[in-house]
Amino acid sequence: MSSFQRFAVIGHPIEHSLSPQIHQAFAEQLGDQVLYEKVCAPLDEFEPVCEAFFNQGGKGLNITVPFKERAFDWADLYTDRAKLAGAVNTLWKSSTGQIVGDNTDGVGLVTDLSKNLGFSIENKRILMIGAGGAVKGVLGPIIAQGPKQICISNRTEDKAQALSKLRPDLCIASSLSDIPSERFDLVVNGTSISLDQSVADKLLSGLPSSLIHHHTCYYDMMYSPKLTPFLSWCSSLGAQNVVDGLGMLVEQAAEAYFQWHDKRPDTAPVLANLRASLQELESSH
After folding, report:
1. Residue 170 has pLDDT above 90, yes or no
2. With 60 as the cut, is the pLDDT of residue 66 above it?
3. In the predicted model, is pLDDT for residue 1 greater than 50?
């Protein structure tokens, strides 16, 4: 009988996922016997695929696009941060057999900023581009760090307005064409424009070039071996400090690993190795 514990990441598509590499690296580092797989769930079969995984002895699931909100609906119990996000990226079965949903995305973003990049959110002015599930998932942990102000800007301002109501004393909403002109300390792209160049061109053409300042940090929650369309646009206008979401991916994975195993991996060597292998892959093409 195998002593390996089974875990998986579920999404659609899923081929691009780096989660298996990350979790296997954590397991090797900590001496755990883990089998971590990719599962591409048909769009109309997410819930039965999850159910079958746990019924067959699976220990934990990571959830990625486009299933995070459906995972929230499917879970029985929630962590506080999952409740706040209304979306789930981590699932496990409790000792009573109930499915617990968590959201580690916000912790991943905040940890990447503070630990890996040395950026403190406290008392800073932040612009979040987008008002979908990605931004909703990280907003609570960002607010908990005590920023001075958060502007949530979206193509449809009503979605931004809905999110800003979480903390109306702190958050303001705007359309992309009506972003406040004062300087932000941190600009985060939480849209999926990096996945589609035509969508990226349309969105970026609506952003004001006045967003770009020498000392501002520009962060894309997506990751790529080369600059994402958002970061490329920022750099073309003179931005010096541009960062993709690879560190966030590794840090949110570490938090999920901690929830499952009660062990916290050292993320620095895993992130460094992953960055190096992605750059090597890009240079070989």
Report:
1. yes
2. yes
3. no
- For the segment 110-131, what is each residue's pLDDT rounded down to a tens digit? 999 999 999 999 999 999 999 9
CA distance 254 to 260: 10
Of 125, 173, 165, nearest in space to 145 by CA:
125
Residue positions counted in the chain: 285
Instruction: Based on the residue annotation, tell me whether 68 is a catalytic residue of this protein.
Output: yes
Q: Is residue 191 a contact partner of residue 127, using CB atoms and an 8 Å limit?
A: no
Catalytic residue among 68, 115, 148, 202: 68
What is the distance, to the nearest Å, from the Cα of residue 91 to the centroid of all Cα atoms in its chain? 16
Helix (H/G/I), strand (E/B), else coil: 114: helix
pTM above 0.85, yes or no: yes
User: For residue 244, which of 113, 120, 92 has the smallest C-alpha distance?
Assistant: 113
Nearest-angstrom CA–CA distance, 69 and 81 = 13
Of 7, 128, 131, 130, residue with least CA distance to 57: 7
Residues 6+ apart with CB under 8 A from 62: 7, 8, 9, 10, 19, 89, 90, 91, 253, 256
**String of b and e for 187-196 (b: at least 16 CB within 10 Å)?**
bbbbbbbbee
CA dist., res. 279 & res. 285, Å (int): 10
pLDDT of residue 275: 93
| Alpha-carbon gap, residue 279 to 275, rounded angstroms | 6
Which tens digits make up the pLDDT trace of 8-42? 999 999 998 999 999 999 999 999 999 999 999 99
